[in-house]
Amino acid sequence: MNTRGLRSQLKDSVPVTGMGPQVGAYGVQDTLRSGFSSVKNELLPSHALELSEKNFQLNQDKMNFSTLRNIQGLHAPLKLQMEYRAARQIQRLPFLQSSHLALDTLKGNDESISFEDILNDPAQSEMMGEPHIMVEYKLGMM
Amino acid sequence: MALSNVLEIPTSGFNFENVARNVALEGLLEGGHTKTPKPMKTGTTIAGLVCKEGVVLGADTRATSGEVVADKMCAKIHYISPNIYCCGAGTAADTEKTTDLLSSNLTIFSMDSGRNPRVVMAVNILQDMLFRYRGQIGASLILGGVDCNGNHLYTVGPYGSIDNVPYLAMGSGDLAALGILEDRFKPNMEMEEAKELVRDAIHSGIMSDLGSGNNIDICVITKQGVDYIRPYQESEYKDKRQKRYKYGPGTTSILTEKIIPLELEVVQETVQRMDTA
């Protein structure tokens, strides 16, 4: 099988979830934990920080790249983003924990500690997805 | 696209799943005349000033939880790095964790670069962190330290505002303490005079504010090192325990005793040499 062809079909893993607790881990209403669903809870953030925290990393990156572009020209963010894209592809299979070592070193996360490293560490997650389904989803076969 | 059988691992960091539930619970509890537990705050008096040889920081030691004194010997002066210490007012857990995070980040930096961090670095890291969380982290901090650029004293508010000043007081008792500081502060004071002034400022905060009390801690940071005096002055209103509340041996009578010996025998023994070159 042509593995290079497979790689190019890998989906970008940016899951889109609904706002608020209504959407549980599997993408459907988790009635046991979060009660009955209501449209208002789906659409509006329940906490002041929810929206800003969801997109914090993306916004920071956007801001930094645009500053870099203004200072050094278009090539600087382009090169960096190319490296990020390459590092993002060196992951383990979708249902396993990857260390993100290359990505962390590139972003400078290996030299700082923040709440992302302490709270809700995905390596300590108590749930694991069904391996076949996760791989099929990632390859776009589902 | 979310499918019902594909697991999406939650992102690391804060998780807001329970916020709606908590809001609903709050409403239920209020109706039933029970209150959610209040976080422990350090309704506090903290003060700091810059003197000729360094920086003097002072704090009281009372932590309150609502109307109850939760901790009579709370340590409000936190270690950040060998040359920087930080007094914290506000929610006790928030000040603890924020200063811990800051200290860890600065330790990584000093291990990388081989230098002691500067006070401006600590202040900028704090400012970024507190502004990112829009004041939800209730920590008002006074940072004081000595670095290659001199003696510095900064204040950082819960929303991320900073100020660089020669003398400072924060917390619920700050107005009383600030009165004393405004009256007697002079630039380039001697060390003993500076310690007395900080002590007096905290003392007036303790006397005039219900949220501050008990002992006074002082921390003196100079180029030579740090002197963390805890307590600098004990409160005169300490209560004396009438009796010892420890149970002496033999208080509880033994009714029955059963001993089961575990017989272990050596089955296999292997020796592996370790090369300690």
TrEMBL record, chain A:
GO terms for biological process: proteasome assembly. The lineage of its organism: Eukaryota, Metazoa, Chordata, Craniata, Vertebrata. This is Proteasome maturation protein-like. Keywords: Chaperone. Belongs to the POMP/UMP1 family. One of its GO terms (cellular component) is cytoplasm. InterPro entries: Ump1. The keyword Metal-binding does not apply. The keyword Aminoacyl-tRNA synthetase does not apply.
UniProtKB/TrEMBL annotation, chain B:
It catalyses: Cleavage of peptide bonds with very broad specificity. Keywords: Cytoplasm, Hydrolase, Nucleus, Protease, Proteasome, Threonine protease. It holds the Pfam family Pr_beta_C. Its main location: cytoplasm. One of its GO terms (cellular component) is proteasome core complex. It comes from the Eukaryota. One of its GO terms (biological process) is proteolysis involved in protein catabolic process. The active site is at 44 (nucleophile). The keyword Protease applies. The keyword Hydrolase applies. It is found in: Cytoplasm; Nucleus. SUPFAM superfamilies: N-terminal nucleophile aminohydrolases (Ntn hydrolases). Residues 240-271 form the Proteasome beta subunit C-terminal domain. PROSITE patterns: PROTEASOME_BETA_1, PROTEASOME_BETA_2. GO terms for molecular function: threonine-type endopeptidase activity. The proteasome is a multicatalytic proteinase complex which is characterized by its ability to cleave peptides with Arg, Phe, Tyr, Leu, and Glu adjacent to the leaving group at neutral or slightly basic pH. The proteasome has an ATP-dependent proteolytic activity. This subunit is involved in antigen processing to generate class I binding peptides. Component of the proteasome, a multicatalytic proteinase complex which is characterized by its ability to cleave peptides with Arg, Phe, Tyr, Leu, and Glu adjacent to the leaving group at neutral or slightly basic pH. The proteasome has an ATP-dependent proteolytic activity. PANTHER family: METALLOPROTEASE TLDD, PROTEASOME SUBUNIT BETA. Belongs to the peptidase T1B family. Component of the proteasome complex. This is Proteasome subunit beta.
